[in-house]
Amino acid sequence: MTINEKQDELIEDFELFDDQLDKTQYIIDLGKKLSPIAEEYKTDDNLIRGCQSKVWLHSEMRGDVVHFEADSEPTAQISKGLVSLLIKILSDEKPEDVANADLYFIDKIGMSSIITSRRAGGLASMIARMKEFAQRAAEKVS
Amino acid sequence: MCVLFQYNNVNVGYFTILLTINGNYSPLIFHKVLDIQKIRQDFPILNEVINGKPLVYFDNAATTQKPLPVLNALTRYYEHFNANIHRGIHHLAEKATSAFEASRHKIQTFLNARHVEEIIFTYGTTDGINLVAQSYGRTFLKAGDEIIISTMEHHSNIVPWQMLCEEKGCVLRVIPINDEGELLMDEYEKMLSEKTKFVSVVHVSNALGTINPVAEIIEKAHAVGAKVLIDGAQASSHIDINVQALDCDFYVFSLHKLYGPTGMGALYGKKDILNAMPPYRGGGEMIKEVTFAKTTYSDLPYKFEAGTPNIADVVAAYTAVEYVETLGKKQIADYEHELLVYGTDALQSIDGLRLVGTAKEKVSVISFVMDGIHPQDVGVILDQQGIAVRTGHHCTQPLMQRLGIPGTSRASFAVYNTKEEIDKLVVGLERVKKMLS
Q1: By the CB < 8 Å criterion, does A84 face chain B?
Q2: pLDDT of B136-175, one tens digit each?
Q3: What residues of chain B have any CB closer than 8 angstroms to a CB in chain A?
Q4: Which Gene3D superfamilies match (chain A) (predicted)?
């Protein structure tokens, strides 16, 4: 499935809910299913700055795809859910696809205010970090 | 005994008649009652619908909303007398200048300053503190001098002093607090010595709501010859301020936390001290005469107001102060205290919620944490229910470190808030708990 196919599927899932609170509940529940990041990856280098809650992101190349693992501190459940969505959409995809991805699902599921606002969330910096890694990887390949 | 007093079918107040033991009546005491529903009509933004729910605005410690008279004052200024001030000879310039200076007089009265030129317009509290740190601090403080602040300062009353300490080699000392969020005054007294040259403390804590005993702080600092700045950002809308009675050397506040416009504040300073201080910024307005050889500076207050000031917002500040005075500081404080007591009881009844900051003397600010729940999640889920609170460290990271928490959620009440809104907050928080369990 391409990045956009994954996004479209996700948008469809969220269309089942009328209420923003139900969407948030769904995100929280998805976060609970996120496999935890290995302790060795919870380093200062992997810590995303600018988040009100702590989020760690580990990026590596696996064959010709970029693989991401991420986690947030346990009490930050909405962050954890959003992190799980970003992993689902962007992990194990070709570097150039990740670098050029237009993440329109964020707006469609009503989460843009949480992801982009600097203080509440700061997940925008996580997306930037993922794309930066993919960009560098893509440049190496070509 | 109370007698309700009505005018045009509106309860405007009540009389209390006190009966003394020997049967004599004391003079009548008239209490004005605020009509909160009528006050709410002055704030058009309160009609906003957020996520399909009517807005409940509990982020007043960050900024208060603006009443129609203030909004109208801004429009009126631009529609009828926008001009640059103190310069033009034409009619508009004269009108703008006199409105601008009328605000200075208004703020002088509001703070009970002795002289009108003791009021300097700034861009806000932070700007005022920087002005004092840079102008007074760089001129009068030297290596080894001690500056005292407190654990509950906002970053804007920490960083300007740290910058000064780095430059001049001064030493920053910090008054500790107890677990309730009150200053340890014994520790403060022990800190004071002939080395103490400056004390800069917050009147009311933005994160906890604690009202600090500033009169005592000032008196003790003066006893060792130190100057004192009081950061009144959070106090101005809740507490009666009398700079002459306090005898502080500097007092700073922002209008946007006092139902006024953003980007505008005032610094009060004692005249002799301000006179001894050099200008902080150079430019127009602050000069007497400029030649390439030497420039001489204006007198107070203009020597600290370089460049075209924020004229429209200064003009509208007059109306904001007038609005607060018309409602009455005492009436506002009494009503907000009622909300504080009601809100404290209501929130404490929520299982797993812990109040942060339980000082005996507080303004209407309630900070709290919830077991196993991140403050950010509290903020997001409340927002989705139309309830605006602030979450995070509230620009008081050292305070949060002292309390051993990453941040709190904070509900802060203003005169237009109601008990019904607090009930909605309680329902909202129960929903937060349910969703995150």
Answers
A1: no
A2: 999 999 999 999 999 999 999 999 999 999 999 999 999 9
A3: 51, 372-377, 379-381, 384-385, 391-392, 406-407, 431, 435-436
A4: 3.90.1010.10
Subunit contact A78:B380, Cβ cutoff 8 A: yes
Round to whole Å and give the CA distance between B143 and B159.
Answer: 18
Closest chain B C-alpha to A29 CA, distance in angstroms = 9
More confident residue, B52 or B55: B55
Peptide bond into B44 cis (omega under 30): no
Please provide the distance, in angstroms rounded to a whole number, between the alpha carbons at the two ends of chain A.
23
Best A47, A52, A109 member to test B by mutation, with max B CBs in 10 Å, is A52
The sign of the CA dihedral B426, B431, B432, B433 is: positive
Q: Which of A34, A119, A106 is nearest to B383 (CA)?
A: A119
pLDDT for B29 equals 53
- ipTM for the predicted complex comes to 0.87
- What values do phi and psi take at B432, rounded to 5? -55, -50
Residues in chain A: 142
Q: What per-residue confidence (pLDDT) applies to A51?
A: 65
The yes-or-no verdict on residue B25 having pLDDT over 70 is no
In chain A, DSSP finds a helix count (H) and a strand count (E) of: 7, 2
- Contact B252/B265 with Cβ under 8 angstroms? yes
For chain B, count helices (H), then strands (E).
15, 20
A21, A25, A120 member nearest B376 (Cβ): A120
> How far B421 CA sits from the closest chain A CA (Å)?
19
Residue A28: list chain B partners with CB under 8 A: 435-436
- Enclosing H/E stretch for A141: helix A123-141
Tell me the helix, strand and coil percentages in chain A, rounded to 5: 55, 15, 35
DSSP per position, B104-121: HHHHHHHHT-S-GGGEEE
- The residue of chain B nearest to residue A113, with distances taken between CA atoms, is B380
Which one of B373, B380, B391 has the shortest CB-CB distance to A75?
A: B373
Residue A16 touches chain B, beta carbons under 8 Å = no
CA distance B402 to B407: 11
SS3 A129: helix
**Rounded distance between C-alpha atoms, residue B318 and residue B302, angstroms:** 19
Q: Is B2 annotated in the active site?
A: no
Is B129 within 8 Å of B172 (Cβ atoms)? no
Confidence of residue A116 (pLDDT cuts 50, 70, 90): low
Whether residue B346 is predicted with pLDDT greater than 80 in this model: the reply is: yes
Say whether residue A31 is in contact with chain B using an 8 A CB cutoff: no
